[in-house]
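User: Show me a protein chain along with its predicted structure.
Assistant: Here is one chain, sequence first, then structure tokens.
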Amino acid sequence: MIPEKADQKANRKKRGSLGGRPVSHDATLYKDRNTVERSINKIKEWRGLATRYDKTPESYAAGLHLRGSILWLRSLPTP
């Protein structure tokens, strides 16, 4: 049974999810987390790392180091 609009509003009010204060957040922590997540996504763009084609821990770690080196070299300014 699908509740009617009036029932939905009453249910939300009963649960306390109708308005209220927004959740506060630490801007510095959010900025750092965003940086880490974007870096991880750049690493995962390399298909071998995203799908774990390298089965041994040593070859996976080598791939991480190689991808990190490539990203670092690309971030350097060109002369």
